[in-house]
Amino acid sequence: MEYNIRTLEKSEYPLRKEFLYEAIFVPEGVEPPPRAILEAPELQVYIAGFGREEDDRALAVEADGRVVGAVWVRIMDDYGHVDNETLSFAVSLYKKYRGLGIGTEMMSECFPY
Predict the structure, then answer these.
(1) pTM of the full predicted structure?
(2) pLDDT at position 66, please?
(3) How far apart (Å, rounded) are the C-alpha atoms in residues 104 and 90?
(4) SS3 97
(5) What is the pLDDT of residue 113?
(6) Which long-range contacts (CB under 8 A, 24 or more apart) does 81-88 make?
(7) N or C terminus: fewer CB in 10 A for the chain?
(8) What does the radius of gyration of the chain's CA atoms come to, in whole angstroms?
(9) What is the chain's pLDDT, residue by residue, as a tens digit (113 residues)?
(10) What residue ranges define each of the domains in the chain, with the CATH number in brackets?
(11) What is the DSSP string of 2-61?
(12) What are 101-106's contacts with CB under 8 Å, separation 24+?
């Protein structure tokens, strides 16, 4: 499969909301949560105000003529928070593009930061 990893343009930042939803783990046989869950404060930390801080960085992956995944890093008080100097990762791909090594390559492209 051909794909291209590139910087996520500022005009594309709203796509991170879609990919945040795609990143939510939904066990097999369980209904996905409503999209309104993205408005929860504990999830807003991943997307609100992105691009304002020096450490905010995002990449996109394009395949089949569209953006099919994204990875972004920032210092945030999220579920994996270490401290206020360690970047947190968010990575997501549409299901069709998972398990192909694309996410791993996107994360590798993001670092060294």
Answers:
(1) 0.88
(2) 96
(3) 12
(4) helix
(5) 47
(6) 87/55, 87/113
(7) C
(8) 14
(9) 899 999 999 999 999 999 999 999 999 999 999 999 999 988 999 999 999 999 999 999 999 999 999 999 999 888 788 898 888 888 999 999 999 999 999 999 887 54
(10) 4-110 (3.40.630.30)
(11) --EEEEPPGGGTTHHHHHHHHHS---TTSPPPPGGGGGSHHHHTTTTTTTSSTT-EEEEE
(12) 102/3, 102/61, 102/63, 102/69, 103/69, 103/71, 105/5, 106/5, 106/59, 106/61, 106/69, 106/70, 106/71
How many residues are listed for the chain in this entry? 113
- Amino acid type, 47: I
Task: Write out the two tokens for 42.
Answer: 């504990």
Q: How many CB atoms lie within 10 A of CB 49?
A: 10
Cβ atoms 61, 94 nearer than 8 A: no
Tell which residue, 58, 64, 63, 61, has the closest CA to residue 5. Answer: 61
